[in-house]
Design brief:
five-stranded antiparallel β-sheet; 16 strands; Aminopeptidase; binds manganese (II) ion; 3 domains; binds (2S)-amino(hydroxy)ethanoic acid; UraD-like; alpha+beta; 21 helices; Alpha-Beta Plaits
């Protein structure tokens, strides 16, 4: 059994020996280790991985192409003639590629030929996958077919990302490292993803909307898992949240300890478990399972901290079944709008009826409001849902601010008429008006550089191919890093909308369904995340959040800050391709544990309680 390599060994070894220790990490490309070794000493394996990846990122296109071309094809000639490197041979056989049926082998070789002809380099896929246990042959072939349709620039970057994932797993092997906690958290997501709403489950899609059977099955599984993790109390509340509390070492500490009873003593954390339609497995859920894993480790060690940890699995954030978004975090801050109970879903069921069917006591909703004075702050872990960390090869990112957003549902009412006989200058085409608005909103958001505008839903109700649309319903989602920038864009877009309707002589209705203020991270809490990440030896990256999160509602009453975890597949989200690795989940759990321990030592300093803001 080879002895595991250690960072001390690698940091101390002469260059040539260190190169030998890192041999095989990047296929036939020792120049990467050589370049990375100039940045020694490495504080952590994560830092070594990052440094090697950045050596590639800064090496220039020719070197990157040479690196990709140094790799064998999947189930290609090298595998058949058994001339693969030991690492590639192990990986391809573990993924079952050496057991392909003749038809699979032929199909893979056709894909290899087509891919290489289209892109000029071999298809690269980390076949051990995001969990490290190996993708199935079907997954491999499906990914191959999907990426064959891709764009050359994207595919070159995606091949490099997979090469870094291959290198990461090879480094784990060399250092004898297994991301045990990350593997468990990864598996918890798989278990929760088995529940999906009717109509989506049958298609193998993940959709969990508010208070459906699947939603309630998720709540039940989260509840039982919280109990198994050792939370002292777990309950479902009046809007369907699952709340777990892990008590502090005492609810109050003696006054001369400088920590008087009225000082806040609960850290609030969590995220949502509802999903968008055909969404990903990690959006929201990662922010529930990471703190749960931390509490499980505390409970296992019998450790109590000088504050209580309250983990909330928020029941409704996405606003899919009903228009109300951030419903359950709004309830926690005392801003649940009881008008929402009258909202109807696509089947005409009101939220009130859905809650009654789920056995929720609506009259208890006001009691859900948390007293800010009881809380130290709110922290949320979330998958990034964007490409930044993936492109910069950072596993974690500290959020500086969450963009402010406004969302509308709207309808344009024109005149339905004959598509053949109505001249173009005699139409009041509702869909054309919306199309013009869509392009105007796109242009206006692009003008700011970091604003975004999206028409996510667009429908001609009861339309026909040969009828000029008389009605067109749509949604509009507008976001920007600050409220002032957001509001300037909103007023411009709405003015454009009015002008378009006037000129086209159509009517419109517009309902604001969500408004969330931009939420800058509380400096003290952002600093806590920065310290927690830096303590892992992970390079620090600060970034804004384009996506909205429950943290922006809690922001209205208590200080908050978020931690982002890198997404795979170029960080795609609100898409079944959403993915993250158990290695990155491991780092998120370790960072969260660091934050807990750091907060505990802050609290135990005699004198003032820790800075909240
Ligand atoms: O839309 C958002 O930003 C969040 O995913 N609800
Ligand atoms: Mn989402
Ligand atoms: Mn989310």
């Amino acid at each position: 059994m080879k002895t595991a390599l250690t960072l001390d060994q690698l940091n101390a070894a002469p260059v040539n020996e260190a190169m030998h220790l890192l041999a095989g990490v990047y296929e036939h490309s020792p120049w990467i280790a050589e370049q990375a070794l100039t940045t020694r000493p490495f504080a952590s394996l994560a830092q070594l991985k990052h440094s090697m990846a950045r050596s590639v990122a800064t090496a220039g296109r020719d070197a990157q192409l040479a690196l990709i071309r140094a790799h064998p094809e999947l189930a290609g000639q090298a595998m058949v003639s058994q001339t693969l490197t030991a690492e590639s041979s192990h990986e391809q056989s573990k993924a079952g590629l050496t057991q392909c049926s003749p038809a699979e082998l032929t199909h893979l070789q056709q894909l290899n030929t087509a891919y290489r002809e289209k892109f000029g380099f071999p298809f690269i896929l980390a076949v051990r996958g995001p969990r490290g246990t190996g993708l199935s042959r079907n997954d491999i072939i499906a990914t191959f077919e999907r990426r064959l349709l891709g764009h050359p620039e994207f595919e070159l970057a995606e091949c490099l990302r997979h090469i870094h994932r291959i290198a990461e797993l090879r480094l784990n092997d060399k250092f004898g490292v297994t991301p045990t906690l990350g593997n468990e958290v990864w598996d918890w997501h798989e278990a929760l993803a088995q529940f999906s709403d009717a109509g989506y489950q049958e298609q193998g899609q993940l959709t969990v909307t508010y208070l459906t059977e699947a939603h309630r099955a998720c709540a039940a599984q989260i509840k039982s898992r919280m109990l198994a993790c050792g939370f002292d109390e777990v309950h479902s509340d009046a809007v369907g949240n699952v709340v777990g509390r892990y008590y502090s070492d005492s609810n109050t500490r003696n006054i001369d300890g400088g920590y008087s009873p009225e000082t806040p003593n609960t850290l609030l954390t969590g995220s949502h478990f509802d999903t968008v339609r055909n969404g990903g497995k990690y959006d929201g859920r990662l922010g529930i399972f990471v703190p749960m894993a931390c509490v499980r480790e505390l409970a296992r060690q019998g450790q109590r901290l000088p504050f209580q940890i309250e983990v909330v699995a928020f029941a409704e954030e996405e606003g899919q079944r009903f228009k109300a978004t951030f419903l359950s975090s709004s309830a926690l801050i005392g801003r649940f709008d009881f008008e929402w109970l009258n909202q109807q879903d696509a089947d005409g069921i009101t939220m009130r009826e859905a809650m009654q069917h789920a056995g929720l006591a609506q009259d208890e909703i006001p009691q859900l409001q948390r007293q800010p004075a009881d809380y130290l702050g709110f922290v949320e872990v979330h998958i990034e849902q964007g490409p930044v960390l993936n492109e910069l090869d950072f596993p974690l990112g500290v959020v500086t601010s969450i963009n402010g957003s406004v969302r509308y549902t709207a309808e344009v009412i024109g005149t339905a008429c004959h598509a053949g006989t109505t001249p173009m200058n005699r139409r009041n085409d509702a869909a054309a008006a919306v199309a013009e608005l869509l392009l105007a909103a796109e242009k206006r958001a692009t003008q700011d550089g970091d604003s975004v505008a999206t028409v996510g839903q667009l429908l001609v109700p009861h339309g026909s191919p040969n009828v000029v649309p008389g009605r067109c319903q749509f949604t509009l989602d507008l976001r920007a890093p600050t409220d002032a920038q957001r509001d300037a864009m909103v007023s411009d877009v709405l003015e454009s909308f009015q002008n378009i309707c006037n000129r086209r002589q159509v009517r419109s209705t517009l309902e604001e369904t969500m408004r969330a203020a931009a939420a800058p991270s509380a400096p003290a809490w952002q600093k806590r995340w920065e310290q927690a990440v830096s303590a892992l030896g992970v390079p620090l990256h600060r970034m804004p959040s384009g996506a909205g999160h429950d943290a922006m509602k809690l922001h209205e009453v208590i200080p908050q800050a978020m931690l982002f975890v890198r997404g795979q597949n170029a960080g795609i989200s609100h898409n079944p391709l959403e993915s993250t690795t158990s290695d990155d989940m491991q780092l998120a759990v370790l960072a969260f544990s660091n934050l807990l321990q750091q907060l505990a030592s802050d609290l135990q300093q005699p004198g003032l309680p820790p800075a909240r803001e």
